# Entry
Amino acid sequence: MDLDLMVSSFPKLLNATLVTLKLLSLSLIFGLILGLFFAILRLNKNIFVNRFSYVYSYIFRGTPLLVQIFIIYFGLGQIEFLRSSFLWIILKEPYWCAIIAFSLNTGAYTSEILRSAFETINKGFIEAGDSLGISKKIIFYKIQIPIAIRQSLPAYGNEIILMLKGTSLASTVTLMDLTGVAKYIISTTFKPIEVFIVAGGIYLFMTFIIHNFIRYLEKKYSY
Amino acid sequence: MDILAFGNTGWGDELFFATLMTIAVSITAMIIGFCFALIFTPLKLSKNKFLNFIGNSYTTIIRGVPELLVIYLLFFGGSGAVMYVASIFGYNKYIEINAFLTGSFAIGIISGAYSTEVFRGAIQSIDKGQFEASKVLGLKKPVHFFKVIMPQMLRLAVPNLSNVWQITLKDTSLISVTGLVEIMRQSYIAAGSTRDPLFFYSFAAVLYLLLTFLSMKLINKLEIKYRRGY
# Structure
């Protein structure tokens, strides 16, 4: 055991944790918006809209996240049309490519979670709203969405933890996140166990916080 | 389609063998995972606090740390550990471990943690009466486990194991970082030499979709078999 290395690498890894957290929070925000959007499309009665949403979630859940990042980072740059458009400002940055890939990926999983939550809402709630003469729009925003969010909390908590682990793939497109820096230290010092303990400890700590935060929310909004 | 031709002119045969490699790694990893689950599920269900702690640490650590980090640990630390053990027995030469074995082992450890959770959940949801009944009947331990608990556990575990299989299959893409030539690595090589990453990575995505789709079809058949009688 090389304790000196563990102590000296800790600040570097902690710094890299900031990158990981930034990636995680941005992709979760975009992912939640995408997920809600596609979950609503899934509930649509129009078969084309419905199918479109299903295919989106099927493709992103059926392929590895690594492939998705590589297609966006290495693949999209090949399209001449994209290179000359304003989108290139975003797509040439590995940081934004990673965020786009993560958001699309977590969006697919989130849409499935929210869809099943919407489908399991007690019909009585909607009927009660109807009979009170509340408009369809307000029933949706004030009754269905809050209940669906509460119901999907446990599954969404898992998704956040999966996404936290997913952000480690950003290191494959040259980003120096927690895993990227850990790999760099391992490959320069050849002391994998020490670095693994520190980096793994930081990840476990974050998982622990997220897990407990979701538990707290579940308790707070239980009914 | 020239680019996907078999033989020296295209990448068809290379990608075909890479797909077989992905399947081989996934199956090996799944089996290694079952071995881990077989050890750690009893630990997690044990009443002994210490054994329980070991079982829980395994699943918590592996499921809370990114797969990539576990792979780096084994990839960089694996041969060191083997050489250390070998040096105890007086063998001091450099030992290189097969990339296939390291990769399958790394994914196997990860898949094992998920399988352990699935088996634990399945055993816990078996009716208590079943355990008591087989005790009252005086069944021997192996008969009790293989004839009473196992069939009921499998029925409950199969749907969740299919999720574990999907996760394992997708995780194998990560061992491309260690240089094992599976779908992802082969696409990387092909993309590099043809300068056509969009095509090859999209093709890799299609291959993965095909694998997940086909394995789902197979597993659904299994599920029907195990649901029989209920």
The helical segments of chain B are 12-45, 49-64, 67-88, 99-124, 128-136, 141-171, 183-194, 197-226. Residues 86 and 226 of chain B are 45 Å apart (CA to CA). The two ends of chain B are 49 Å apart (CA to CA).
